[in-house]
Amino acid sequence: MSGGSADLYLAFDALSGVNPVNLAMASPDRTIAVVSTTKVPTGEMVSNVARIYPANQQLAKRIEAVTRADRNVFIDAQT
After folding, report:
1. What 8-state DSSP symbol labels residue 39?
2. Based on C-alpha coordinates, what's the Rg of the chain?
């Protein structure tokens, strides 16, 4: 897959979804994101309780910057 060629950006957790390598596959003209907003802590967050999970709004902003923000879906997969 080449950069900017994804039709769907499926992220099972938003924190992994903002990885620049993954975001490079998206295009604001083409890609629709479906993202779980359920907070899944990283290994570092589990071992270092001072490490704070970023706000979902911050993560969504980064994903929306490279996808079709008007069509994206953000949903808490635990509910």
Report:
1. -
2. 13
